[in-house]
Target: Membrane protein
Amino acid sequence: MQTTPSSADLDLQADNLRRAAIDKSVKGPVLFLFLNGAFWLMASTILGVLAAIKLVSPSFLGDCQFLQFGRLQPTHINALVYGWGIQAGLGVMLWIMARRSGQELKGGKSLLYVAGVFWNIAVTLGLLGILLGGSTSMQWLEMPRFVWPILLGSFLVFAWPMAVMFGKAFRPEGFMVSTWYILGACFWFPWIFLTANVCLHCIPSLGALAAGINAWYVHGVIFLFFTPVAIGSAYYFIPKITGRPIASAELAKLGFWGLAVLAGWTGMQTYMGGPLPSWMPSIGALTGTLLLIPVGVVGLNHHLTTLGSHSLVATSPTLRFTFLGSLLLPITGVIFALLSNYSTGVNLQFTHAGYGFQIIAIYGFFSMCVFGAIYYIVPRLAGCEWLSVRLIRNHFWFSTYGIGAIVVTSLVAGLQQGGDLNNPEMWDQDFMQLALNSRPYMVARAISWALITWSNVWFLIHLMLMVAGLGRRSSAPTLLHSAHDDTPHAAHA
Model:
């Protein structure tokens, strides 16, 4: 006896076809961004190992002038920010915006490939310029000045179709929190990137104000690009995996507008006590502390959404990485507040603690959320499942332990370093002694980056196999059920 499909079955079938068409339309650009980002991530972590070793043993590779600490460290950070972070972020943004808006990428795909190629060429030339001694000595803007217009143009090419998708989206439920964060990142990054580069490269004789603008730019990229992309990803995937709506739409709105209003005022507090008008670092200190409100609200909302579904954290790769990233967001906010306020910031400024903050923001909070997104998105684009559960688990644990060790040791080293610098009894001590006091923490940093590098090598290989279509042929998602075998179990995610 033949049965007629119900309207619900027909709607589900139509919805599946629509999602498949959307995935097909963005497949090439998104995988291109993920794969190139993973290459740069591996390069960045290798450079991080070398830079940490140079802090422990300056004579290591001492005959090679290209591999001095003053060149390795900015190359390591720029590769992490521009090679991995922004590229991977754009891939996540494009896929979520297309899925959430229900819009296919209709045209301009070739232009996206061209923009992606130019982005990677510009990053390559920029990092080579730093290694060859052409650094501008401006934090996160060390690449030679001819690079920034190429990066800005390439970013705008990717941002435009996402803005168009948002404009065409059908929004029956009103405020779509994930797409609002992504749209914000599309506009905020070009604004701060253009403003900082024009001020620092095109306006001469800014003096001390140039340092303040540079610090404003660094914090702007962290809080107005990396943070909204990661939060938008978490707001998409946590309800998706748990099957529960966001716990509170009002908290979601409060978190978004709090970040939008406050984040652009941070940065100048880096130079508290420096040659800047006192109101500049004071405003930065105030807003840096007030940012605890939006990041705390977002963390609370994510926790309430996953409440009662924590068993899925143990089984879903996407939820495990995203959950950890969401947990690290309030911690990032607390560390930033400690660096920003006058009572603690004066002992932590210009120490290893600043590096720890940057790493937990970029590799801890942001990258963990992006890893979770990649583990969900890539199988839907590649048409196959991840080959190895063990590699995913190793990627998670090596990254978790490595980042935790880097951040903790950097904060402790910063406290000790700041205490020594501000101790009146050590006014006549040689600065080399202060460096030697931090040596054990730098050894831990080198080991931690080595562990992270090991996990990222296998992450890159795993991703390359997926992009090549050599993954596991199965309709069952890759889940982390068993700790004793390498065979994924079937379940709905």
Remarks:
- The chain has one domain: 23-467.
- The mean pLDDT is 89.
- The CA atoms of residues 391 and 458 lie 7 Å apart.
- The longest helix spans residues 7-56.
